Fold:
Amino acid sequence: MTKLLIALMISLPAYPALASLTAPEQALITECASNVDLSKKLLSPETADKCVKGLNAGSPTLLTKYSQDNPESAANMIGYNSALLDLKEIVVRQESADGALALTRVLEKSDCALCDLQLGPKPEQAFEWVGKYASARDGVFKKTVRTWDALGGIRTASLSAAPYSKNKGGWNGQNILDRYRELAKWAKAETIRLEAAAKVPGAAAKMNIGALAGILREDLEIVGDSASIGKLQAITAAAGIREEAPKPSTADKKGKDLAATSGKLSGLNAEGRGEYLNTAFDGTGAFGAGAMAAVKPAATGSGTKTGTATGTAVKPITPVKMTAAEEKALGESMMRMEKGKPAGYLADVMSQTEAGKRTNAFYSDPKYAKAGSNKLAFGFTRAEGAFGYWDPDAKVIRINSEVAEEFAAKRGMTVPQMMKDPAAMKALALQVSPVMVHEAEHQNQTARAIAAGIDFKKYTNGSTDPYTRAKENLSNTESSKHMIEYCSKNGGPACWKSFHPMHADNAEKFMAGGAEALDALKAPLYPKIDSFEGGTAREFKSAQTYAAQLQALEAKARTNPKGMTRAEQQNLRDYRELMDTRFKWYTQIYRENTANDAEALAFRKKYGTAASGLAVPSL
Amino acid sequence: MSHFFLAAALCLAAAPAAGGQPYTEGEYFTMAVPDGWTRKEPGVGLSDAEKKVFGAEFFGPAADGLAVLLGAHYYAPGNLLHATPEKFIKLHAAPAIGVNLDGKVYGPVKTGKAGNYYAKVFERKTYEYQPKDALHPKKIHIFEKFYVVPVKNGFYVLRYYAPMDLAKANLKHFEAAVASFKPLKR
Structure:
């Protein structure tokens, strides 16, 4: 860069590097900076979307170019605009307990970018923004965050009085989840009081028990206080008020997280599903039981009660827990390294698809071996509620032992008995294979991050890049591709019964709409995980100090290089590396997801599926 | 559930079915979006121009962590997702993997109209699983309705997606939007 150009850059008032950009690029930079400039009071999600796309355009991207001389401005620009997109998604698509969890994640955890935009940490700070950019969701948002003014007169009257003595200021000063917990405590106490009061002769007639019970139930259901709900039901029944039985699919059922209790979310009974579907809209012509001829549901792999390869009916047994030694033996039988390559039932299944081969090949890949990031550490373990996971700290992939125990039990066997049955073992491997492909892709993501030097999330023993839904998109894409290819080669429709319906559903969404379909509608079902935009906001907020220091040191390096101390020169190198890592991570993941989207669509074109009786064309 | 709470819930779940807000998606279509439904900006991935699929999604009330959705999209010739409207229909009016697992319900494909334009119309009842990747997830029942409008160049899809608890109450808003639909690429 010439001295003349350097002098010219320094003379520009606000953005010294703008002179090296084209006019449209300069205009976009200015627009994106203005959008998150608090003095201008814009914070438009629509502009933010335009900015995120525009900053990621080109090669090198506009963000990469701009960040070279303006790391702080660039970091704030991409971080804050991404934060606005993330908030808009949460406001528009989530409410009640899920919305509360998501808003807690983005407003109350450390590194809150929205807080810099004065949209948090208290949700009340976002009310004006919601009113401006998602006005239709204004009331819902206020109810979701349980702000005092949205609690309703019955609650606030009671909470204001003894023994609660709450007020608006104190109430709204609480964290979002604390508000829900306080309401649950209040509802529990009021249920007891209502129970006592209702027993007083003549008192029931003077109280609006129905109205009260409804409000109390709402607060109790959130945390799954079934004991208090039972009391309420008894109270209303005694008062002659008919309470509707809880429906299988009602709002506010995310109590597991809020109450830190387990087992509240339970699967629906298999026999009840079809009946519910056919009667959900009784009385309405469009939805009556006869309006849609239900395609006869196929028996599912995980739900079938006949399990042997020959079709002989066996009596299922109660699942028998494995010992630690049995878990180890099963894990090795499924997947182990032999002569530098994966072997075992699971490896065999995966060798039959391109996605599976990629998984097997990853564990033999010499470029990751040096870093030790592709070591196979696979096994079964107790993992309550989960199917499986990749732990980047412990560096292990684990499948829940219950998966194998339940699988064996449906076939009338314990796991040690099943291990003597090759057909059953192969079937288990097949059912587990999408999970293995999914979790191995997570391990592969970690390995790629380490190789690229973007593994700046450090744990006790391991490291990785930030965990966002972008990682889940890639893993779900790989596992979907695996299932689709496997079944296209192995019997078509009948093959799909080998997989858990939830996994097959992923593949179905993928075939219908590509990788975007996997994320677009499922996103709200991951309320505890940052979206990619949310993760971007968090990471650049976290790196703000580095960015500010870097920008200051670079300015000094330009204007007075000889005046820099040795420590300042070292800091300049260190901060530059830190910020380059963040920008590299961001650009790499953005591109990876865009490429994944394109590859997914190409894969769909290649693979149609054979159908029996249902015409599904190749693409 | 008390009358009080039910009334409040109904007010929350079903926005007034008024004329709706006029919406124009570039050179592709116009429609009236239901009052109270909010547009969400698209996320990471291929751009509309790269996919050659143009449109928008509007979200209404939510239940079970899922919001009611109205999607309106134009699939240009040569788009990356669905070569023809027939292929779109076959992938959505029947199981895309060729087998119906878990008791989903697919309705017949009928003829209808979106605005003044001929459309193929069908419904289905499917699921979302929650929590994701759990051993025993809860199944959230979903109702969907599609209007597929073939035009000379490409085709349009109007889509309704709703958790079953909210599907009936909000369907009329979707139908009103469909009735107001006007394709600009014909």
